[in-house]
What we know:
Layout: H1 10-15, E1 23-26, E2 30-34, E3 42-48, H2 55-61, H3 64-80, E4 92-95, H4 99-102, E5 111-115
Antiparallel strand pairs: 1-2, 2-3, 3-5, 4-5
The chain binds guanosine-5'-monophosphate.
Amino acid sequence: MSYEYDAENIFAKILRGEIPNKTVMETEHTLAFEDINPQAPTHVLVIPKGPYVNFDHFVSSASDLEIADFFRTAGKVAEQTGVAQSAEGAGFRTISNAGPDGVQEVPHFHLHVLGGRMLGRMLPAPR
Ligand code: 5GP
């Protein structure tokens, strides 16, 4: 599979500083920022800084360093925002939508980190 990255997508513009964002965490390879239209009290988007279209593009083409940094950062976001599972409960959900069936809107790989309320079942029952 070959992936064509659109350098004009909204997250590419955020990475270039052309559009503002509310940064939660930043490393050499990864940026985490608040979703503009939050679906839960905590809704953070974690993105690699490299030009990857979706999950499968990222895990097949990014370096081990980028991949490790990305997932470690996502874990730290969950801890720092207070949604990580603890003795008191809590917990969160990560989602990565890919392609038309996954209803991916922005063609730059991202992980949604959602929490801060009971999120319910993962998917609505099939019709
Ligand atoms: P997708 O449907 O591609 O998985 O999710 C894209 C997400 O990006 C949506 O949750 C949407 O609210 C968020 N989003 C779209 N445009 C912007 C923006 O300009 N800034 C931020 N912070 N989030 C955005």
